[in-house]
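Sequence only, no structure available. Ideas?
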Amino acid sequence: MFKLKAANGSNNITGQNLIAIRHKMNISQRQLARMMQIAGYDVDHHFIRRIENGERFITDIELVVLSKVLKVDIMELIDDTIPVSSQDSN
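Reply:
I predicted one. C-alpha coordinates follow.
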Protein backbone atom coordinates (compact mmCIF):
# COMPACT_ATOMS: atom_id res chain seq x y z
CA MET A 1 0.00 0.00 0.00
CA PHE A 2 1.26 3.48 -0.80
CA LYS A 3 0.86 6.77 1.02
CA LEU A 4 0.35 10.07 -0.74
CA LYS A 5 2.71 12.70 0.61
CA ALA A 6 4.35 15.86 -0.59
CA ALA A 7 7.97 15.46 -1.63
CA ASN A 8 9.03 17.01 1.68
CA GLY A 9 7.21 14.23 3.58
CA SER A 10 4.26 16.39 4.61
CA ASN A 11 0.77 14.90 4.70
CA ASN A 12 -0.66 17.95 2.92
CA ILE A 13 0.30 20.82 0.63
CA THR A 14 -1.92 23.32 2.41
CA GLY A 15 -0.09 23.84 5.70
CA GLN A 16 2.51 26.36 4.58
CA ASN A 17 -0.09 28.43 2.71
CA LEU A 18 -2.39 28.31 5.72
CA ILE A 19 0.39 29.68 7.93
CA ALA A 20 1.08 32.52 5.50
CA ILE A 21 -2.60 33.45 5.16
CA ARG A 22 -3.16 33.30 8.91
CA HIS A 23 -0.12 35.49 9.61
CA LYS A 24 -1.15 37.96 6.91
CA MET A 25 -4.56 38.22 8.59
CA ASN A 26 -2.87 38.44 12.01
CA ILE A 27 -4.95 35.65 13.57
CA SER A 28 -3.78 32.88 15.86
CA GLN A 29 -4.44 29.17 15.49
CA ARG A 30 -6.93 29.44 18.35
CA GLN A 31 -8.73 32.33 16.64
CA LEU A 32 -8.94 30.40 13.37
CA ALA A 33 -10.27 27.34 15.20
CA ARG A 34 -12.88 29.56 16.88
CA MET A 35 -13.87 31.03 13.50
CA MET A 36 -14.38 27.49 12.20
CA GLN A 37 -16.43 26.59 15.28
CA ILE A 38 -18.70 29.59 14.69
CA ALA A 39 -19.13 28.34 11.11
CA GLY A 40 -20.32 25.02 12.55
CA TYR A 41 -17.18 22.93 12.20
CA ASP A 42 -16.02 21.43 15.51
CA VAL A 43 -12.21 21.81 15.65
CA ASP A 44 -9.61 23.10 18.07
CA HIS A 45 -6.23 24.77 17.67
CA HIS A 46 -4.53 21.36 17.58
CA PHE A 47 -6.38 20.68 14.33
CA ILE A 48 -4.88 23.85 12.82
CA ARG A 49 -1.40 23.11 14.21
CA ARG A 50 -1.37 19.57 12.80
CA ILE A 51 -2.38 20.81 9.33
CA GLU A 52 0.21 23.57 9.39
CA ASN A 53 2.94 21.18 10.53
CA GLY A 54 2.01 18.69 7.80
CA GLU A 55 1.17 16.02 10.38
CA ARG A 56 -2.43 15.68 9.24
CA PHE A 57 -4.15 14.98 5.96
CA ILE A 58 -6.79 17.55 5.05
CA THR A 59 -10.10 16.69 3.44
CA ASP A 60 -11.82 18.55 0.64
CA ILE A 61 -14.58 19.51 3.08
CA GLU A 62 -12.01 21.05 5.43
CA LEU A 63 -10.45 22.97 2.53
CA VAL A 64 -13.85 24.41 1.63
CA VAL A 65 -14.56 25.42 5.23
CA LEU A 66 -11.12 27.01 5.62
CA SER A 67 -11.49 28.97 2.38
CA LYS A 68 -14.94 30.24 3.40
CA VAL A 69 -13.90 31.15 6.94
CA LEU A 70 -10.72 32.89 5.77
CA LYS A 71 -12.56 34.44 2.80
CA VAL A 72 -9.89 33.31 0.35
CA ASP A 73 -10.10 31.38 -2.90
CA ILE A 74 -9.55 27.69 -2.29
CA MET A 75 -6.57 27.79 -4.68
CA GLU A 76 -4.79 30.10 -2.22
CA LEU A 77 -4.74 27.16 0.19
CA ILE A 78 -3.47 24.70 -2.41
CA ASP A 79 0.00 25.06 -3.86
CA ASP A 80 -0.08 22.87 -6.95
CA THR A 81 3.57 23.67 -7.71
CA ILE A 82 4.74 21.53 -4.78
CA PRO A 83 5.99 18.20 -6.10
CA VAL A 84 4.15 15.16 -4.80
CA SER A 85 6.23 12.06 -4.12
CA SER A 86 5.78 9.01 -6.26
CA GLN A 87 4.05 5.92 -4.97
CA ASP A 88 6.11 3.55 -2.87
CA SER A 89 5.43 0.31 -1.09
CA ASN A 90 5.88 1.59 2.51
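The chain has a mean pLDDT of 87.
Hope that gets you unstuck.
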